[in-house]
């Protein structure tokens, strides 16, 4: 959520930023509801002050033995007005919050303006391998090796699911362990968080209400399957004031992720690019506000380090205002090279959400024992999407005979296996 005071004082700046983000949020309604709730609050506060004065006066007169009955009707009338106004304020506050939740975070000044075509490449790492033969797609390789089965997964769960067998399953598990070990060695604390969360948790993280239609719901229990470990990790410190000296907090969490992927049908239906369920290792940080932009660079570098250790060519892209994530001020995408497609595809998004999530979840910190609590800044990033890393290894390390070489750093996690063969 945005700071209402900032929105009031920078209306034109906010309006321009929303336009740049292609947001449909109603700023005029937001400002109208904000004005109404502040006016009502001021009016009711004045009445409450009068009520307190009148009550004190009645108590004084009673103590003196005077008759206070002529004053009581006015007191009761004032109490009734306050009760009615409190109910009206609650209603307006609810409407205001509902509108406020539709506002995306405003882009940082360094973010290019425009849609997806305005995304800007920042850097590249590694050279795509010259294979000397026509590279196969990851799913064709996996099916031929007998380590991937899409048909049986579809029989069990429907389209956009997959099953891995033997060395394929081992490779996925090895990637998860390798990523977690690498990030914990870099100072992240491992978290194993719940996969089912409440509506409030989805709202705090910025998933709801915008992405409600993309969530898998357990309706009987009012819970939702997480689309990313970012959701439960964001909420670990909801409604808390973090003590002095406790920041930064850096977490790494593995989890399955569940997404309906609404609006994407007909796109990437082949293979493992876009699925309803996939594994991911998530990086998350709670930091002091003045350090969050530097933290974004460091977190992104942590995700890049995994790709570099695996020897996978990739590029780093800063997303434009109309393509960045809903809750972020700035997002970097890391895109890995896929030989079968002859192009780079997203494997990680790293975002600085500043106080967008912490304002929703009342996540604050104190700089010292005497200071007032402040909203923390939150950052998140895939470190990495495991399934897409799996397929990138299959494609980039494939051999002409259909076998796949296992990257050196993963072999200790795979019992020394150096090549995946049929």
Description:
It is a single chain. With 422 residues, this protein is an alpha+beta fold. The protein folds into two domains: 4-100, Serine-tRNA synthetase, tRNA binding domain (Helix Hairpins), CATH 1.10.287; 116-420, BirA Bifunctional Protein, domain 2 (2-Layer Sandwich). The chain is built from twelve helices and 18 strands. An eight-stranded mixed sheet has the order 1-11-12-13-16-10-9-4. A three-stranded antiparallel sheet has the order 5-7-6. Helix 3 packs antiparallel against helix 4, helix 5 packs across helix 12 and helix 7 crosses helix 12 (386-396). It is elongated. The two termini are 52 Å apart. The relative contact order is 0.14.
Primary descriptors:
single chain, 422 residues, alpha+beta, Helix Hairpins, BirA Bifunctional Protein, domain 2, 2 domains, 8-stranded mixed beta sheet, 3-stranded antiparallel beta sheet, 12 helices, 18 strands, 20% strand
